[in-house]
Amino acid sequence: MRLKPDQLQAAINRQLLPVYFICGDEPLQSGEAADIVRAAAKQAGFSQREVLTVENEQFNWALLHEQAASLSIFADKKLIDLRLPSGKPGVTGGKALEAYCQALPQETVLLITAGKIASAAQKSRWFQALDKVGAVIQVWPLQGRELVQWLKTRSIKRGLKLNDEALQWLAIRIEGNMLAAAQEIEKLYILHGSEGVTRQQLEQQVVDHARFDVFKLAEALVAGQLNKATRILAGLKAEAVAAPVVLWAISREARILLQLKQGWQQSANRSHLFRQLQIWESKQSLYQSAIQRLSQAHMETILLNCALADRQIKGQSGGDYWETFFEQIVLFCRPEKVLRPV
């Protein structure tokens, strides 16, 4: 069964299928579609989850059969999360997938996420087998009317009101970059809440993605890149980016790191925490390094000073909030240089 990404939620609410194959080279839609499947499986009692990543042709495809055949004594339902970045299972992998579909294991859901699939591969026996017993969801960057409708739907879901002219302008501005579009909607909501936003306001507030923006600042903070973070902060100030947006980016990363730190200290499942906080696998190593670099006291100090910056922005405390932002950057990236709370 073929489904579009926006059809997946309704379809999975009606029936949870034994196989879901999500493929394509658009990361935001692919990741969100996979999250829908994982959440539905968990709600249906598939509490055990095994992740298999096909990194090269030497991958042992027998593991797929072994995981399907084995169940934990603590859970009688399992989700197998198979990652196929190349989108090419090869001859051995193709046969393994076909065999899996021909003898579907009970109490098991198979979720496959893959890169872009070639047209020829869609005619293969393994692809047809997946399509027959489960759902195939192909994702790709949206354009034209589809992109405008996607922006409208996502804005409404977030609680942001954009008129038609603003939606058209935003669609042109982000040039098919779905992740950038999602980030812009988030920033606009922070600034405007449920108020309506016009094209004129967008032209003033939407940052050109070729320039510095708050999400690049957040990445630099987590990575501990002091020089880069300082340059980005200077760029944001020069472009007159709204201070509440910068404050949101700094405080958000501090809260995420504090939650991770406290969760790990309590022996919580790390993979579950990453999923809960929506940290993609490509970024997880950066957050692990940041947690080792920053103590809980450092994170709490950052949040306390974020509160100070908030008061400075509102005119309730003296001082320059841009200077406070800079102090937070230093604490984020070089905590050993800060001898006392700033």
Any overview of this molecule?
The chain has 16 helices and 8 strands. It has 3 domains: 2-139, P-loop containing nucleotide triphosphate hydrolases (Rossmann fold, 3-Layer(aba) Sandwich); 144-206, Helicase, Ruva Protein, domain 3 (Orthogonal Bundle), CATH 1.10.8; 215-337, Up-down Bundle (Zinc Finger, Delta Prime, domain 3). The radius of gyration is 23 Å and the shape is globular. The termini are far apart. Helix 15 runs antiparallel to helix 16 (321-333). Residues 207-211 have low confidence and may be disordered. The protein has helices at 8-14, 27-43, 62-69, 90-102, 125-133, 144-158, 164-174, 178-192, 199-205, 214-223, 226-238, 243-265, 270-276, 281-293, 296-313, 321-333, and strands at residues 2-3, 19-24, 48-53, 78-84, 108-114, 135-139, 161-162, 196-197. It is of the alpha/beta class and 342 residues long. The strands form 2 sheets. Strands 1-6-2-5-4-3 form a 6-stranded parallel sheet, with helices on both faces.
Tell me the Rg in angstroms: 23 Å
Tell me about the largest β-sheet. Answer: 6 strands, parallel
The run of helices and strands is EHEHEHEHEHEHEHHEHHHHHHHH
CATH homologous superfamily grouping of the largest domain: P-loop containing nucleotide triphosphate hydrolases
- What fold name stands as the CATH topology of the largest domain? Rossmann fold
- Tell me the fraction of residues in β-strands, as a range: 5-15%
Number of domains: 3
Q: Note the overall shape.
A: globular
Helix content: 55-70%
Cα separation of the termini: 57 Å
The counted number of beta strands is 8
Low-pLDDT runs of 5+ residues are 207-211
> Strands across the major sheet, in which order?
1-6-2-5-4-3
The number of helical elements comes to: 16
Mean pLDDT: 85
- Going by CATH, the architecture of the largest domain would be 3-Layer(aba) Sandwich
Q: Structural class of the secondary elements?
A: alpha/beta
CATH class of the largest domain: Alpha Beta
